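Saturday, quiet lab. Running sequence design on the structure tokens for the scaffold JK sent over.
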């Protein structure tokens, strides 16, 4: 079964100006212009784990955010923000896996959702959702997507910032995309930064990732549509003269859930960290065993 709505994926353009002016790198040597090809390759790599999420309430699907395909203990999940899951009204939601393909609808009562959600200040959440997919639906998704294996690292090995790491999230800001009755055009964009500050509160870990509007004027004012996107840690090798390279390895470091208000030209996106993700997985497994 498919919906009759087509979703077209338009990659946001990476300009030379954006490539030069990511953010100030936390490295000893100066950062030269990273190749646009490298940024394109990172974007394509992250998209292989990512899906766009639509609510289906009536005839017109509504774009709600982003999710990451993950696996743990032989089970397939969608990892997103609890806010995104709560926004999926009706008996069905849908996923966009690739450009020029119809949405894949999923009945809500076919999946099991585990939420870590709080009633306190939105900036601290918790705001995580781990949605267990039936094998048949997961098999359908795997035709086009890869599921990131959370079991590849031990639970105690949390993701921590490193001075040679690039941080990135991928998604389509709603304000830069176009939505029509029969189709949607998602402007899929790679949001990258050298700056990620980590903190912990009440048993959850957080990353605040900074983006600079002055250096990247094409960034959106609102990051609605990025909610639920994975935050990825990308190890970068820096040569003596400042040129960077990448060996195509990525590590899931968190989930974006909150745009933190700031003054001036800097945006901060708050993400749950890897400890919080592993906590959600542990609670999902515990619930399944009961």
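Result came back. Writing it out in full:
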């Amino acid at each position: 079964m498919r919906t009759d709505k087509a979703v077209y994926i338009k990659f946001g353009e990476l300009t030379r100006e954006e490539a030069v002016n990511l953010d100030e790198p936390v490295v000893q040597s100066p950062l030269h212009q990273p190749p646009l090809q490298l940024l394109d390759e990172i974007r394509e790599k992250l998209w292989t784990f990512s899906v766009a999420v639509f609510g289906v309430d009536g005839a017109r699907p509504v774009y709600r955010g982003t999710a990451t395909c993950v696996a743990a203990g032989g089970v397939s999940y969608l990892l997103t923000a609890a806010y995104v899951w709560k926004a999926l009204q009706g008996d069905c939601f849908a996923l966009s896996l690739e450009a020029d393909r119809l949405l894949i609808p999923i009945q809500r009562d076919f999946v099991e959702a585990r939420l870590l959600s709080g009633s306190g200040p939105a900036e601290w959440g918790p705001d995580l959702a781990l949605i267990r997919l039936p094998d048949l639906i997961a098999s359908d998704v795997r035709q086009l997507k890869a599921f990131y294996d959370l079991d590849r690292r031990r639970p105690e090995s949390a993701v921590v910032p490193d001075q040679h790491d690039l941080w990135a999230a991928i998604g389509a800001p709603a304000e830069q995309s176009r939505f029509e009755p029969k189709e949607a055009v998602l402007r899929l964009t790679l949001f990258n930064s050298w700056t990620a500050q980590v903190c912990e509160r009440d048993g959850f870990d957080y990353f605040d990732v900074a983006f600079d509007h002055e250096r990247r004027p094409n960034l959106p004012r609102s990051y609605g549509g990025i909610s639920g996107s994975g935050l990825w840690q990308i190890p970068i090798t820096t040569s003596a003269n400042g040129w960077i390279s990448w060996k195509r390895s990525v590590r899931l470091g968190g989930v974006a859930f909150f745009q933190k208000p700031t003054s001036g030209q800097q945006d901060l996106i708050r993400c749950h960290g890897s400890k919080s993700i592993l906590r959600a997985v542990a609670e999902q497994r515990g619930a399944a065993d009961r």
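Notes for JK: Residues 274-289 form the longest helix (16 residues). Residues 79 and 199 are 21 Å apart (CA to CA). Ask whether to fix the surface positions before the next round.
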